[in-house]
Design goal:
The chain is mainly α. The protein has one domain. Helix content is 71%, strand content 3%.
């Protein structure tokens, strides 16, 4: 009986680090937005306590999901590529109303990192890093 040899440690390509960094920054922005929603509860004119708490919890969970995607992608797993792509596509779609509403700075802040992640997700080094055989040909 042969034992599968340990996989050789792969060097993370810069694209994986770029994607992970953008995902972590987006997660931090979501957590800051969640804090802002929580602060509206204690403001002079609270809109809805239940709605603010719900949005804060939802945003924190989304932020935790983005951090998980960044960690697993940096670890070489291939499954985080699809959810990361979906999130970035939503950000591209959400960026266009800011251009037409006369607030192009927010549109650019949403569009440029999302476009960079989308392009980098399909780059050869990132795909090769996340779809590499381990041991007897099994995919990681």
């Amino acid at each position: 009986m042969t034992v599968d040899p340990a996989p050789q440690p792969a060097v993370r390509p810069p694209g994986v680090l770029l994607i992970g960094g953008v995902l972590v920054v987006q997660a931090a922005a979501l957590v800051l937005l969640a804090v802002r929603f929580m602060l509206t509860i204690f403001g002079p004119d609270p809109l809805s306590v239940g709605g603010s708490v719900f949005m804060a919890v939802l945003l924190v969970l989304l932020g935790a999901g983005l951090v998980t995607l960044a960690r697993r992608l940096a670890g070489g797993f291939r499954w985080p590529r699809s959810p990361a792509l979906v999130v970035q596509l939503f950000l591209v779609i959400l960026s266009f109303p800011y251009f037409s509403a006369g607030n192009p700075l927010f549109g650019v802040l949403l569009l440029v990192p999302a476009a960079a992640v989308i392009v980098t997700l399909f780059s050869r080094p990132v795909v090769q890093f996340t779809v590499r055989p381990v041991g007897s040909g099994k995919m990681l």
